Hints:
There is one protein chain. The protein has 1 helix and 12 strands, in the order βββββββββαβββ. By secondary structure, the chain is mainly beta. The relative contact order is 0.19.
Amino acid sequence: MTDLKPIVPSIVVQEEGSRKVLVYLNIPELKVKRSFPNILKQIPSNGNQRTLTFRDQSFTFTLNVQTKNNQTKIYSLGVARLPGEIEPQHCSIKYQRGGCWITMMKVEPMSWMNRICDDMSPGLDLQENDDQTPTASAPDEPVQLRDTDMPPPFNLVPIAPSPPFRPPSTKSPAPPPPTQST
C-alpha cells in the first residue's frame, strides 16, 4: 500500500556564520548506509532522492522513503522564496539516520533569522503540496539559542527566560525572643 500524499517534514533552520544556512529536515523513518567509493558519505538505504533543486532564491526537495510495513512515504519541502539569494552550485545535502541537513551558501552576508521571524517580513514562502497547507516552522517571536555541545540537531536549545524581577520586600524585623525571668 502506498501513501502518495506528500509529508512536509518538520524543519530546524540555523545560521552558521554570516554566509551559511543549515536546514535540518526531520525524517524519522530514514536509514542511511555508507556510499562507495566515498565511505565517509552517507546515502539513504531505505529511500531515494527524487528532487533536490537549488535556484537563486528557492529550493525544492523530495525523498521517497520505504517504511518497515513496505509503505512508501514521500517527504517533500519546497521554499519558493528564501529571505536572500543563495549560490546554488555551493549548496549541498548530507543524510543521517532520522533526517538530513541541507546546507545553503548565501550571496550576501546578512542574517536571515531576523527576516524569517519578523512579523513585518514575509519569512519563508513554503510551497504547498496538493491540498496540504504546511504550518509555519518559525516561532512567533525570536528565540535565543544556547550551544549544548551535543551532536546536531540537538546542539542548540532555547534559553529559558529570566525569572520576573521582584523588588525586595520590606518586612518588619522579627520580634525579640521572649525573656526568661527567674
